[in-house]
Amino acid sequence: MSNTQGKKGNRNTGGGGPTGARSSSGQGMKFARRTASGRYLSLSREDIDVEGELAADYANYTVQIPPTPDNQPMMDGAEPTSVAMKAEEQYVSNSLFTGGFNSVTRAHLMDRVIDSDVTHPQMAGAKGARCAMPACDGKVMRNERGEDIDPCECRFKICRDCYLDAQKDGCICPGCKEHYKIGEYADDDPNDVSSGKLHLPGPGGLNNNKSLLARNQNGEFDHNRWLFESSGTYGYGNAFMPKGGMYEADLDEDGLGGDGGMPDLNQKPFKPLTRKMPMPASIISPYRIFIVIRMFVLIFYLTWRIRNPNMEALWLWGLSIVCELWFAFSWLLDMLPKVNPINRSTDLAVLKEKFETPSPSNPHGRSDLPGLDVFVSTADPEKEPVLTTANTILSILAVDYPVEKLACYVSDDGGALLTFEAMAEAASFANIWVPFCKKHDIEPRNPDSYFSIKGDPTKGKRRSDFVKDRRKVKREYDEFKVRINGLPDSIRRRSDAFNAREDMKMLKHLRETGADPSEQPKVKKATWMADGTHWPGTWAVSAPDHAKGNHAGILQVMLRPPSPDPLYGMHDEEQLIDYSDVDIRLPMLVYMSREKRPGYDHNKKAGAMNALVRCSAVMSNGPFILNFDCDHYINNAQAVREAMCFMMDRGGERICYIQFPQRFEGIDPSDRYANHNTVFFDGNMRALDGLQGPMYVGTGCMFRRFALYGFDPPRTAEYTGWMFKKKKVTTFKQDPESDTQSLKTEDFDEELTAQLVPRRFGNSSAMLASIPVAEFQARPIADHPAILHGRPPGSLTVPRAPLDPPTVAEAVSVISCWYEDKTEWGERVGWIYGSVTEDVVTGYRMHNRGWRSVYWISKRDAFLGTAPINMTDRLHQVLRWATGSVEIFFSRNNAFMASRRLMFLQRVAYLNVGIYPFTSIFLLTYCFIPALSLFSGFFIVQTLNVAFLCYLLTITITLIALGVLEVKWSGIELEDWWRNEQFWLISGTRILLTLTT
After folding, report:
1. How far apart (Å, rounded) are the C-alpha atoms in residues 728 and 718?
2. Residue 476's closest CA among 406, 428, 536?
3. In the structure, what pLDDT confidence band is assigned to residue 985 with cuts at 50, 70 and 90?
4. Which of 218, 404, 680, 975 is deepest in the core (most CB within 10 A)?
């Protein structure tokens, strides 16, 4: 495989063919690998077409029939996957995909990802047997447990490429010279329907007028997609419900009969997943009363001050009046949104009962929870240590959520090989760490934090082998840290060795050709991967196409998607720890570095997050997204399930995101710089939860993917008139007879036509097809009439489709630097561009469209991270927030220009965000008034009379009372409140000086 990218003169904007082997931009795709022996194996465009023709001749198609008393779907687990499909999955996980603008998308098959040995079968570069074909040293295909796949009864070892070649050469096994059973195991009988599957004829017998999107990436007919695009009905449990009772005669009397095939939901009591608890009246009522009292006292005081000027020093009186008026206005903006704080609670037992307990619609108790894509963003391994990022990844992979529904994406905006190999090392160590956490219920699931806990580690542990297991895992983690810390030197030494070899080759070539050695051309000092090839990202010594702002898009599936059924460890003496009763599957892990080229505005972190949104939509399309900074990790393994309670409860379809409080570790006990910021997170944000919801403030937030796409909620409210009268609005076009149907993209927005969809989202057909699927899968279960916009129970128990090379190639296409050109990404769709505080603007846009948000404070802190530990860094952080707020105030995101769907008090809260930095001007001026009075001999009032002193005393008493009551209902410590007041004064007087210098 060549290390230089191929170029094309023109970029075709047409869609891909039915096979999906070309990306939506018309780019060709070339599959190639370089084996350890130096042999190049490639698959051309024609070969892929031939392969697709073979698949059409031999493919088997399945469809789920409705559950009846004598037939339950998936009785014995999922359908056995074909050998070819397993080979494609293994090929995807072992390949490094690169591509971008005017370049061919390439899949480089890597024999090694890191220098150390890899054992987990899901991981890229896992060791295995070699192919038995002459002159081929490729790895043999393997199953989920890492065992070799033998397509033929003769047990002839063969790799994926040689197997495909054998299929094209008459399907003859190279070992025994007998025919293969194409795509199936020997024991898979196509006439067997005991497992609830019906085998249908190939695409030739179907209607050829079906939409191209109804075919999967291999060109085969995809029945699940067809359900979303037509009025077809395959029975209860799918996107479309049969009208008129299609199977009434076959269903039992208790659960599944009746019109439309739906169960009688009125017979089932509704169990809420969450509860909203108002603050005690003994605390919140006096709090509101004191707000009103202080507001009227301020009005009377300011009126008295204006009517009684100091005629001897009007200039000093004027300065003080202006400042005091601003302080009163600013205080009012801060206090009004706090009049309705609330608390919330969740019920995980009900969540398990609804989504993971056997029922008529889910007879085997498969998880019916929606998928979740977790984003981790990093940019510079020198500023953000890769060990910290690796620990964050490990905590995510070990979270308590269905493994097959979880996917983790790491965005490396620097394109560094150090980050790539550190993530590979983390994936390798997860083979030990994740099952250990599940076996012994470890908290926290960040290994560095767990092993740093002071105290008795055996507290609450009941298994006798815990101490032995912990000792072994601790030793493995110490070795893991040594490998991570040694990666920079390892990469440097490896690159120096390979570069020296290239220099010797060049010198030898010059001698053989008789050229003058003094005119030796300069060999580029490349950065080399573990398999002996050039790293396609940023090199240590920058070169064209290999610099921080100029490199190809990179995509590597570190851990391929797990099997749909639990996979328990083997009781083997060679194993480090006994995992025989533990599910050893790992969630999907993907490394991504978006393409960067000179001349393109990459929009910093917001652009990287949008690239993650598109990439994940093509690959896993989890309807919910959880984003983290690389220095924040999951401290509570149940946090994701708790957040999902809100999304899956009644009214959850109107929630755009769940914001968690940001908690920090490593801060001095006195918190002298108010790094914990508890007044904001436990006070202001909790109060906003009683209105339209908290603001989005960055890391630790779970999003509804559909809301990020810029659509309105299915139901919302508008506030009109001077009294802000509430009016309910329905925004979706839908059949009034059914609230459980799947809609098309155009049905979500009246102004959005089929022709304008690519203009908004780009020209990726796979990306566009994923939008209605994500919206449908994010709905709550319609198990009760109270759920107005839900989905049928059991509709998400179907296993996820496996990854194939064309799908990953499409994902590479959507992270290219040109994809967002002439689209609405960053303007309406995804994270919003144009502000330093893109998080606040993104949340504001969602609230402005009528969405609601939720603030969830769990008993155990959900996530932990790091914060600035000195005054300089803390002030820089506050300055960045203030700069973003000023940008918001002078932009179209100003709350003055909000729509009618934003509540009045929510509008006030966003207005305060844009105005609060200006308080620095008046605060700094007011701080100089005592000094001016001392030098001039005048005061802000002419005489100190009783009225002035009474006003000051009342204002002070009400202020203290409000502070005490706020400490009560927010649950913060009095010391934290006082530290916050101190730092507010420090930062307020420093921001103006910094902004003006």
Report:
1. 6
2. 428
3. confident
4. 218
Quote the tokens at residue 696. Answer: 């989005």
Tokens for 397, please give them.
């992979």
Token digits for 297? 């006292």
- Residue 88 tokens, joined: 């494609």
**Rounded Cα–Cα distance for residues 339 and 445 (Å):** 38
Please give the Cα distance from 719 to 535 (Å, whole number).
Answer: 55
To the query of whether residue 413 is one of the catalytic residues in this protein, the response is: yes
Of 399, 377, 387, nearest to 591 (Cα)? 377
- Which of 163, 93, 150 has its CA nearest to residue 121? 93
CA angle 955, 958, 959 (to 5 degrees): 80
Query: Cis link prior to 444 (omega < 30° from 0)?
Result: yes
268 vs 690, residue with greater confidence: 690
Whether residue 595 contacts residue 102, with contact meaning beta carbons closer than 8 Å, is answered with no
Q: Write the DSSP symbol of residue 282.
A: H
Residues listed for the chain: 997
User: Which residue do the tokens 């199936």 mark?
Assistant: 184
Known catalytic membership, residue 150: no
pLDDT at 30: 44
pTM of the model: 0.80
CB-CB contact of 792 with 236 (8 Å): yes
Nearest by Cα to 706 from 758, 760, 644, 748: 748
Q: Which two tokens stand for residue 882?
A: 């203030």
Could you tell me if 209 and 68 are in contact, meaning their C-beta atoms sit under 8 angstroms apart? no
pLDDT band at 80 (very low <50, low <70, confident <90, very high): very low
Lowest mean pLDDT among 22-36, 197-211, 654-668, 817-831: 197-211
Q: What is the CA radius of gyration of the chain?
A: 31
The single residue of 111, 689, 839, 976 carrying the catalytic annotation is 839
Q: How far apart are CA 27 and CA 77, in angstroms?
A: 38
pLDDT category, 227, cuts 50, 70, 90? very low
CA distance 914 to 841: 11
Q: How confident is the model at residue 507 (pLDDT cuts 50, 70, 90)?
A: confident
Q: Which amino acid is at 351?
A: L
CA atoms of 683 and 325, how far apart (whole Å) = 25
CB neighbour class for 559 (10 Å; exposed up to 12, middle 13-18, buried from 19): buried
Other Cβ atoms closer than 10 A to 306 = 12
Predicted confidence band of residue 396 (pLDDT cuts 50, 70, 90):
very high
Given the residues 150, 368, 413, 976, the one annotated as active site? 413
Show Cβ contacts of residue 799 under 8 Å, excluding neighbours closer than 6 positions: 78, 404, 564
What confidence category does residue 181 fall into, taking pLDDT thresholds of 50, 70 and 90? low
Q: Name the phi and psi angles at 272, rounded to 5.
A: -70, 145
SS3 of 250, please?
helix
SS3 label, residue 503: helix
Kindly tell me if the per-residue pLDDT of 140 is higher than 60. yes
What is the number of other CB atoms lying within 10 angstroms of the CB of residue 168? 12
pLDDT digits (tens, 9 = 90+) for 894-938: 999 988 899 999 999 999 999 988 988 899 999 999 999 888 888
- Note whether 583 and 566 are within 8 A (CB): yes
**Is residue 320 within 8 Å of residue 929, measured between CB atoms?**
yes
Bridge partner residues of 715 (DSSP) = 730
Non-local CB neighbours of 208 within 8 Å, separated by 6+ positions: none
For the record, the structure tokens of 162 come out as 């040689």
Q: How far apart are CA 237 and CA 246, in angstroms?
A: 13
What is the crossing angle of helices 45-58 and 160-168, to 10°?
70
End-to-end distance of the chain based on CA atoms, in angstroms?
53
